[in-house]
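Notes from the pairing session

We agreed to fold both candidates in a single pass and log them together. This is the raw record for the first candidate, unedited. Please don't reformat it; downstream parsing expects exactly this layout.

Candidate A
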Amino acid sequence: MFTGIVEELGAVVAVEDLGEAARFRLRGPVVTEGAKHGDSIAVNGVCLTVVDTADGEFTADVMAETLNRSSLGALAAGSRVNLERPMALGGRLGGHLVQGHVDGTGTILERTPAEHWEIVKIALPATLSRYVVEKGSITVDGVSLTVVDAADDYFTISLIPTTLALTTLGIKKAGDPVNLEVDVLAKYVERLLGRGAGTGADLRDLEEIKEMDR
């Protein structure tokens, strides 16, 4: 589990093509401190498992499912990436609950600079639109952000100087893809409400049985 508070702006050192998979070697001296085989590190919001570490770098295998659902497949040697270690139990939850399980990708439509911040408009896949609400939380390339405006096919976010300086969102441009993870609580609520409707139907069936018994 992550918080969406990026710890380090890292870089891709190398990408090895393994056919339907790939092995990434990434540099991140902060997130690799104390890291070992089997640990998790979020890369642009995607939870990856550490294969090994050495000299401030780590390798991770990326399967076809992850390559197909995220923008990691577009990364190459030299690409900058947002890195975050999992949250520690008992620590502060600075952002919101983030799983590192990307729900889809969006595309930056436009950027509008202001005096002390920047508004970024991002295309929103139709399958994710219902989970995004004004003033709600969303993760963009692993960064926990608050939605400013939410429409059926796009949303906007406001980036402060710190976010612009310390994450890849400061260097992304219009047309670039970004990984999106919606609030998992919204998905659970939707699922539970769906089951609730089914439960209601079951209750109606029960009432019909009672009427037949009478």
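Candidate B (folded immediately after A)
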Amino acid sequence: MLVLTSCLLAVVLTACDAFTRNSGSPPTPIPDSVPSEPRFASADELLAALGRKGVDCEVLRRRQGGLDCMAEVDGAKVENEVSVFDAEVVEEGEIGRSIASRRKEPYGHTIVAAGNWYIRVLDPLYAPRIAEALDAVVLPPLYPLPDIPDKPRYADLDALAEALDASVGCVRRKTVSEGGMTCGTEQSKEPCHHLELHATPAARDDALRLAIGVPEIPRFIVTAGNWSIRFCDESAGRTAARDLGGVVVSSTGP
């Protein structure tokens, strides 16, 4: 009866269906990586903020606690499920529980979250763009990961690239982001290895899970310590895993 009353009070602003479904489980903290701002009074206010950052999202349907919309991101049509919670009615533990239930199997959803809201991005490839527009973070599905060794660790990308070069080759190196680099073998025409360094084990695990959940990303992934490498070629990946002391995270995806 209490849950029903809360849902009726929050019918406009809260994702009632999400936390009612899990009302028997204990409250769950919102992940530490989720920023406390921005906060929105409604899903429409969130869409307006998204539009101001150049990502217009056309409303497809409205539902309890939010709406579904279609955004155009880098020329692609991307559907999103927007949920905004009334923080005066719904406690953070309930919001955290709703987020966790979406990320766990069997759902395995990719979530963009901040403040008192989250968005399920149906095509995870575009989740980082949505998160960037709203100063939010991407929370990937909670796919299980193997036991990942604490070592070896590398001080910078160049050191990781040198180790990979000694194993299967890492030529034509190109820095593609603050923590990312691509390279290839002598035989490959295109860079086919993607190297990343990660600030913390949690950041590493999030990056691994996000890569597993995106079909467009090559998913033979090797990792250990503070690094991960995605390979196009499975044979090269297995050789590198042996030589660098890493483990294979995924060769086929979820």
